[in-house]
Write a structure and sequence with these properties.
This protein is of the alpha+beta class. It is about 30% helix and about 35% strand. Among the domains are: about 140 residues, Sandwich (Immunoglobulin-like), CATH 2.60.40.1730; about 70 residues, Winged helix-like DNA-binding domain superfamily/Winged helix DNA-binding domain (Arc Repressor Mutant, subunit A). A seven-stranded mixed β-sheet has the order 4-7-2-1-10-13-12. Strand 8 and strand 9 form a beta hairpin. It is elongated and about 110 Å long. The termini are far apart.
Length: about 300
């Protein structure tokens, strides 16, 4: 009798664990429907809400590009582009209600105005087509068809779905649809590159001319150093080299060292400095090299 009671207690514990696990599985679910708000370029803002415990994988609709927003702010999200899934991780072990919006490519152009979306949807989903769309075919047929702000909305069941539509007028997407529990964020605006005008070319040309004039002025100023500025760099030995070259016209390094008495190590430092100042220059005569005052 005692043994039967123990078996009964074990069975009750196992059953209780099974029920708790089952309740956890039912908590980790997406609130239906998922809303897919498609714009005129085939991109969509996908919004979904739900609850989960610990961690959960969400199957993305279309080809996800990036996560636009999520709630709560401490929710950890990871978008796996290859597997088209989003991993949600909670910092606690308590059930968490979440809201997440991501941008995905859901439809592609067939020709100039025709578009097609061939997708798998994991749960009941509401597709809101771009403004100015006319539905050609939906396979399998939608459960319901609505009109939301002059846009066609299709409520479809889980599974593979093909939606073909014609976009009669390419217009910016209408403002996001708002429900009691979900809000679609407006898609980011596409930057418009302004056309280059004649004024732009004139401004660029003037800037180039000003820079060219400044460069030319600085080059002239560098070349046309005043005699007083050059004199500030010279000492008696420099002047001795210059006076000898004025008298002789040209001279070899040996002749200059002998005439001025400047040691060899100091002589070449001075010669190089005078050359950089533009006072003297080297002339190659084949068998030898001579220095002379730079001709202006």
């Amino acid at each position: 009798m005692m043994l039967k009671k123990q078996y009964a207690a074990i069975i009750l514990v196992i059953f209780a664990i099974f029920l708790s696990h089952l309740s956890m599985e039912t908590i980790a679910q997406v609130v239906e429907p998922i809303i897919v708000n498609i714009d005129s370029l085939g991109l969509a803002f996908v919004q979904l809400n739900g609850t989960f415990i610990g961690s959960e994988y969400l199957w993305c609709i279309g080809e996800p590009l990036y996560i636009y927003s999520f709630y709560p702010s401490d929710l950890i999200t990871y978008l796996d582009l290859e597997n088209k899934t989003i991993l949600l991780m909670s910092p606690t072990d308590e059930p968490i209600s979440y809201s997440i919006n991501y941008v995905s490519l859901v439809s592609r152009p067939v020709d100039t105005n025709s578009w097609v979306a061939q997708l798998y949807v994991p749960v009941t989903t509401l597709f809101i087509l771009p403004e100015g769309s006319v539905v050609k075919q939906v396979n399998p047929p939608p459960r319901e068809i609505y009109k939301i702000d002059n846009r066609i909305a299709l409520l479809v069941s889980p599974g593979n779905i093909t939606i073909s539509y014609v976009l009669l007028t390419v217009q910016p997407s209408s403002p996001p649809t708002t429900t009691q529990t979900q809000t679609t964020s407006p898609p980011p605006s596409t930057p418009i590159t302004p056309r280059k005008t004649t004024t732009t070319y004139v401004i660029v040309t003037l800037i180039i001319l000003v820079l060219a004039m400044m460069t030319y002025y600085l080059a002239l100023r560098r070349k046309a150093l005043k005699q007083s500025d050059i004199e500030a760099y010279l000492d008696d030995r420099d002047r001795a080299i210059i006076n000898y070259l004025k008298e002789k016209g040209s001279a070899t390094p040996t002749e200059l060292m002998e005439a001025t008495g400047i040691p060899k190590s100091a002589f070449y430092r001075r010669i190089n400095r005078l050359e950089k100042l533009g006072i003297i220059e080297i002339v190659d005569l084949g068998m030898k090299k001579v220095y002379r005052l730079k001709q202006k």
